[in-house]
Amino acid sequence: MTSAAEQQGARARAPRADAPVVNGTALPVPAAWPGSSTPLGARFRVGPDGVAGTNFALWAAGAEAVRLCLFDEQGRETRIPLTELTHEIWHGFVPGVLPGQRYGYRVDGRWDPWTGARWNPAKLLLDPYARAVDGEFGLPPEVYGHVRDWPDQQVADTVRDDRDSAPHVPKGVVVHDDDDWSDDHRPKTPWADSVIYELHVRGFTRLHPGIPAELRGTYAGLAHPAAVEHLVNLGVTAVELLPVHQFAHEDHLLKRGLRNYWGYNSIGYFAPHAAYAASGTTGQQVGEFKRMVRALHAAGIEVVLDVVYNHTAEAGELGPTLSLKGIDNRGYYRLQDDARRFADYTGCGNTLHVVRPHVLRLITDSLRYWVTEMGVDGFRFDLAAALARSMHDVDMLSPFLAVIAQDPVLRRVKLIAEPWDVGSGGYQVGAFPPLWTEWNDHYRDAVRDFWRGALPDVRDLGYRLSGSSDLYAWGGRRPYASVNFITAHDGYTLRDLVSYQAKHNEANGENNRDGAGDNRSWNCGAEGETADEDVRALRRRQVRNLLTTLLLSTGVPMLVAGDELGRTQRGNNNAYCQDNEISWLDWTLLDDPDWRPLFDLTSRLIRLRHRHPVLRRRAFFSGRAHSADGLRDLAWFTAQGEEMTEGDWYAPAATLGMYLSGRDIPGRDERGAPVLDDSFLTVLHAGDRPAQFLLPGPPWAERYEVLVDTSREAQEEAPGAVHEAGTAITVPPRTVLLLRVAG
Questions:
Q1: Which residue in 270, 516, 702, 741 is a FRET match for 378, CA 20 to 30 A apart?
Q2: What whole-number distance in Å separates Cα of residue 353 and Cα of residue 375?
Q3: Which residue did the predictor score with more confidence, 279 or 631?
Q4: Euclidean distance between CA atoms 640 and 617, whole angstroms
């Protein structure tokens, strides 16, 4: 029997078709003019002598030859050699190639997986700079650079597969874009004033009754007035869209009849995901995305993209060959000392080698493109610690962070880090430099634990409610460096957090092994949905408590789409592959008498944040008295109405009072005047029995009026009961009270 090494050698020596091919027939070579090495990608323009065409430029340092492949409407292929090579970039101008043209590349070079070389000209490759993608990625054996089904899987990645992948992969599309955005007005909401709403383009719009059926699940659907109206009524200032870069579905999901719903499997960093377009996929998706951004901007809502630059859909050595792996595997990916193997700091099989200049250029070119030409206002970086690694360790002076800090476009937009990856030393919460905000999982864990009665003391909670100064009060960072969240796309919904003790991910087809096992959840006495009205009422109250805590905390609150409606995923805490009712928003909840009050409370709390600068401070609290009467900007009280001592912070407690002074807000308004506001006392009581709370007297207040009481299903806009300072009030079980200082 022929060995794997001998077999791969025979394949490497197989003759290659150098002539252009149309439907299997060799034709004369079409003319390609020299063109330009910049910009990278496919750019339609007017060339020499006024001839219209497209310039193609591809970085492929170690390649021996590059062929541009053009496809007509019947899928027939024309191959055009790119013979010009400038600074490792292969380029050429092809006259007559117009917008809408579908294309890809075949890149030739050595097949030597032992040194990381995986060139295979039988595989059609997506241009990393393609601005639109037509077609979907299936994963038949032909799209793998190696023989996927080789009998000995230990060496399968070393055996080259010479079957043509072109019929089985999507193509890039030439796009002409002369939009100057002169009619767009970016909201430019300051960080401190921001309220972020994480949503999925398809899931948010798929079942919305006010959106026409043909637009549901699309960019056009999110731009529809019915969708925008909900966001405006809720009061959020920014939508954070789950990945909209072109992505592919994993083989193991396709085999189970599932799809990657979340989209954290990018393959095209410049292309809006084509499946979310209602208008077409041969370039129309670009204009549709832009119209969506304009519609949101017109409503005062910023657009932040969740971006995945840490890895691609090509996975590891046993993954498909779709783009970068076939262009220059060693140049784009981090490899281990054994260059056959990929370094994996992401848990997805590969990690982009961001230290390399051309990889860093790919990422920053992509980011600038989405800001300057697609109109977006910021980015949330998935597994950002992987991007901050130098050769191995996470380094806050890494090339990626340095380039972002000095880039005149990128340093002005919102930058959010998911401050961890799965590699050694990858947990970096609190470590990112100024300009960056971070998802603060310390906040998530502390608030969840407090409301389920699992905090041993309240030290951590105090830091989280007041802006997490222990994490962020360095290097000029501000409280809004902390993106506070209790739920995110990854995990339970808010309703499920109070309804399930254990995950229920059976629908994912992985025997419930996937997803986090420790969720800091509490089911309130019954697992899953129940007819017990006492349990149902307690769950609704707990959801109100969690949302109220989030929206009254210092920092930037992030809500997850549907939490304000009481959305459930039926206990699934890893719904990444559930493109169905498990993940889509159920808009009938707006008419459900049990859950409609939750939307009203959420929107009211957001309005309170917008009206009161003391709830969205731009500087950390000092905790010191700034006036002769001893009033401080922040004070903490026990249930006995006494200021907390150091010993109180170390003792178990179910009740906590937080006083925010509106008289001591740092900074001045736009006209230079001091910023003054009301003062507030927030009482959080997580106990299962009523508690007496003694309201602090002068200098803190003379009277207090109740604005929010989460023990009640519905909240009035007008102030509630007024209580004299120094008197004891009864706080119902598991309740947040927001009281405004009167007098």
A1: 516
A2: 27
A3: 279
A4: 28
